[in-house]
Amino acid sequence: MNEHLQLPIDQSQDTHKANDLIIGKGVSFTGSVVVPNRAVINGSFNGELTARELIVDADGVMSGTCTATDIQVKGELKSTVFCSNLLTIHSTGHLEGSMEYGELVIERGGKFAGTMKQR
C-alpha cells in the first residue's frame, strides 16, 4: 500500500510576503525598482531601489541609489543611501558612499567609508 502523507503548510513561518523582492544568490539585476514592502539582496543589484525595508544579506552586493525606511547591511553596499528611520551596519557589513539616516547602528566589525548626515 503506497500512501502519501500530506502535512499542513504552516505559512506563519514564511517571512516573505507577496510584495517582497528577493534577488537570490547568483542573480544579477540592473535597473530601477520600487518595492512596496521588503527587498532582500543576496545576489548583485545595480541601480535605483526604493523599498519600505532593504536587507543586503552577507552574500549581497548593491550599488547605486537606495531609499528605504529601514536598512540592514550584512553584505556590501556601495551607494547613495537615504534611510528615514534605522540604518544598521552589521558586523559583516560594509557601506561605502554617502548616507542620510534617522538613527544609525554600526556593530563591532561593521565598516563605513564616506559621508554621513543625520536627518
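Second entry:
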Amino acid sequence: MKFITDKMKALSDETRLKLLCLLSKRACCVCELAEVLDMAQPTITRHLQKLELAGLISVKRCGNFQIYYLDPKDEEAKLLLDFVSERLLKSKELKPLFDRLDKSEKKNEIVQKCKEVVGNELEGRD
C-alpha cells in the first residue's frame, strides 16, 4: 500500500502539480522551473526530489544542469500522471505558466542543447 500512498502524497501539493504540468510540455532544468514559478531553486529542487522518489519523474545531468522529465516508473505512476495531466492541462490557471515556459525556452542555448541531448536519449529508450 505504501507504493500508492507515496505517489498520492507527492501529488498532494499544488507546486508539485504545476511542476508535473510544466514537465508534461517538455523536459526542463531547475533554473527554468524556478523562473516560471517565481520560486527559489532550492525549493523547486526539493519538490522535484519528492516527485522523483515517488517514481513520477527522472533527472539527467548535463554539465552544470539537471534536466527533469516525466518518467513514470510503474503502471500506477503512469495512470496517476495521465489522470492528473488530463485534468490540469485544461485549467486556464496554467496558461500563464505555459506562456512563461515558452518564453524561457528561447533564453539559454546551453540549456536548450542539454534538453536536446536528454530528448535524444529518451527517444532511444522505446
